[in-house]
Amino acid sequence: MKINQSEFVISAVGPDQYPADGLPEIALAGRSNVGKSSLINKMLLRRNLARTSAQPGKTQTLNYYKVTSEAGVLYYVDFPGYGYAKVSKSQRQAWGKMVEKYLRDREPLKLVLQLVDFRHPPSAEDQNMYAWLSHYGIPMCVVATKTDKVSRSQWPKHSKMIRQTLGMPGHVPLVLFSSETGQGRDDLWSIIAQSADMTMKSPSEPPKLAQETEDNG
To answer: I want to staple 17 with a disulfide (CB 3.0 to 4.6 A). Which of 12, 85, 126, 175 is the partner?
Structure first.
């Protein structure tokens, strides 16, 4: 996917601050430090557009990034990370209400990317998020980050672990991703383009819905 332009737009805390142009929105959810900012930067081929931080829980708003590509225009919407103990209970509850309202009411939302750490079984918070999205029928794709930290011979084992722990049916895509190597970037862009009704340059080749096994090349 060729990216023509990408820019940070707004840190929003409620519907009155969300963009009103109706462009497709792709939301990113996951635990603090799972690599959401790194994924955004790799997907957009930018070094520091989405700021990564050594301080988990720093993102406290819905951060909008506008992306203009060869296939069309959309927003990435970065959620506050969940599961960080040093954030107060009242703050976590406020974030939860903001995110829940967005997920249930936001019409331009086309897909939620739920990020999990490929190295470990999905946490209780990961399982709760997945179950919540499934219950409300919200389109989703699970993205396993940090795959470069796991040997390729172990990829099938870790993929199975994630699917079983979350209770993922076969039709829900699982993309293995690395912000270091770019693993999974093309697959993820194909899924996003499908969800956002964007036209890829090679429509004769159906996009892959998952990359769970070792590449042959």
So the answer is: 12
